[in-house]
Each structure stands twice: as C-alpha cells, then as structure tokens.
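Customer escalation, tier 2.

The customer says the design service returned an amino acid string that "doesn't look like it belongs to this structure." They asked us to rerun it and document both sides in this ticket. The original structure tokens are below, unchanged.
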C-alpha cells in the first residue's frame, strides 16, 4: 500500500480523534490495523491525536518494519509496555474488541478513561481516496468479466452433467 495513502488515513483519523476529544487510540483488530498500517500483524497501533503513531508488534517485527510505512515500529514483548504510551481519553475499537480483552485493557490502563473509537475509525474508512477508488474499480472490472463468463460456464457444465447422467441411464 502506498505510504502516502497510509499517511492520509492516519491524518484523517487523527482529525477525527481531535473532533471527538480523544487523546489517543489503540488499534488492535485486524481490519483497523491493515487499514491504518498496510500490514497484517499481531500488533497494537498507538495513534495519538497529535504526533506520530507507534506500531508495537508482538510477532513478525521484521514484516512490520518492511511492509508498513509507519516510521516507528517497535517490538511488543508485553502489554505492560502500553501504559507509558497512553494517557487521558484512550479510544478502543469497542464494536469488535472481545469483552475479555477490554477488561484486560481496563485493568492495565487504570489511570485512563477508555472510550469507543469505532465511529471515528468507521467514518474515516468511509472516505475513499482516488487510490482506493481505483482499487474498487479494478475489482469491479474483474467481477464483470467473471459474471459475463458465468452463463456459458453453467451451460457447459449442464451439458456435461446431462451427457454423464444419460450415459449411466439416469435420464
């Protein structure tokens, strides 16, 4: 994914954080991580309302460093590394975060106010850039080719099935 696309997404997300009065967000679910980092990793992305994000990777550090344009990629050996990076109102993806995980963060981030950042992230994801629109158009073109070929493929399969069934006396 192009670095400028990730930067556009981060900047837009940070503007949403500011508007919502959220000091920082911790993104842990796969779809949010891929959207904001460009990489599928077992990681936590800390996005301050103002400043550079930090990608904390539990497994696959080399992949995170190689594939994501996020400048600050660090290993995450333990969730105990999170509290020093977080303060104030901390946004979590409460629409998809399992309850057990939420409770773990609540206990770990005792001095922080945990709030839902889902709407901020979803609003950002709804805004499509020209790069994203190009990817959508390319996927739609591939589907159009597949759907155009489908009737002929189904008809051919039907002919083969009819021949097979009649040769075995089923018709």
């Amino acid at each position: 994914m192009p670095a400028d696309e990730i930067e556009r997404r981060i900047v837009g997300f940070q503007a949403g954080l500011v508007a919502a009065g959220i000091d920082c967000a911790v993104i842990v679910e796969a779809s949010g991580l891929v959207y904001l980092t460009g990489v599928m990793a077992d990681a936590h992305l800390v996005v301050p309302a103002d400043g550079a994000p930090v990608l904390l990777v539990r497994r696959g550090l080399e992949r995170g460093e190689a594939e994501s344009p996020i400048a600050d990629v660090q290993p995450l050996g333990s969730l105990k590394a999170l509290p020093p990076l977080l303060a104030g109102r901390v946004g979590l993806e409460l629409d998809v975060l399992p309850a057990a995980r939420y409770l773990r963060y609540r206990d770990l981030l005792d001095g922080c106010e945990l709030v839902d950042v889902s709407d901020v992230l979803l609003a950002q994801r709804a805004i499509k850039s020209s790069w994203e629109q190009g990817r959508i158009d390319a996927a739609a073109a591939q589907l159009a080719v597949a759907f155009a070929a489908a009737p002929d493929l189904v008809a051919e399969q039907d002919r083969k099935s009819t021949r097979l069934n009649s040769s075995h006396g089923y018709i």
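Tier 2 assessment: The sequence is consistent with the input. The beta strands are 24-27, 42-48, 54-59, 72-75, 89-92, 113-116. The first strand starts at residue 24 and ends at 27. Sent an explanation to the customer and offered a walkthrough call.
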